[in-house]
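tool=predict chain=A
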Amino acid sequence: MRYRTLGPSGLRVSELILGAMTFGEQGGVGAPPDECRRIFDAYAEAGGNTVDTAINYRDGQSEEILGELLAGRRESFVLSSKYTATRDPADPNAGGNARKNLRASLETSLRRLRTDYLDIYWVHVWDAATPIEETMRALDDAVRSGKVLYVGISDAPAWVIARGQTLAELRGWSPFTALQMPYNVIDRDIERELLPMAESLGLAVTAWSPLAGGILSGKYTSSEATGRHKPADIDERQHAAAAAVQKVADEIGATPSQVAIAWTTARSKAIIPILGARSLAQLTDNLGTLDVTLTPEQVDALTAATDFKLGFPHDFVNGIAPWVFGKGYLGKE
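tool=predict ok
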């Protein structure tokens, strides 16, 4: 396992992040505590040092289990959690990105995780009802209190993130160091605005669902396959992407999961994949991506497997570039 700094910060994180959304059995299929320990220990043994959770994962079980697993070794890990999701549906102030919920959510997460600080605290989802100015200042207060070291944002529009970053720079507040977004061979929406923005601003992108909910793992090639998705619900586009991943996997002697994860990092230096596993076997397979290197031709073949388009204004602007610049047109980089 190699390490890198997280975005513009000096925080050193491993090149694969362990996602703990599967830690706990509350609210559906997940991993029991004993299996969570095996997963966590295997990740740590492989050199992984960065763990991601959220206040609402498994109704709080994920944080509680991580608190137990980190006992006696907290300082060796980069620990992150998220807030936004409601702590109490009956309380109108128990959810969202306002200062009040941030404070209460942070205290709840710290208590469950048995720590007095988080390395990274994430805004989990954009809350259009809360001004980004309030959220950025509240995050800065959390950093200044020593309870949070760095901040990031997940699942938000590029313009919101850019505005928040500009406000932080202008007013001397703690800026975002990273984004957390879905990214895989099938789901490439972040290529329109979010990924170019992150690359321009020097932010890291921690990519969740690199296997598209298991579709790219090869498990749905049979009509009788079982998992999160019903085989009948997987469309032709998704099947085509999975087939392309399988083809490359067969060519290089890797598993589809390893190839799919390797594609995300090959697409951008900003990307750091998040591994979500319900079993030690799944994690071990996913860690095998560390030994996979795709050729540019293989990366291009996987990229071409989906009919993804940037849309307006990107395709339009690119299309009229020769007309705009004339002899000064340099072509696409």
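The beta strands are 3-5, 12-14, 17-19, 50-52, 78-83, 118-123, 148-154, 176-182, 204-208, 271-276. The radius of gyration is 20 Å.
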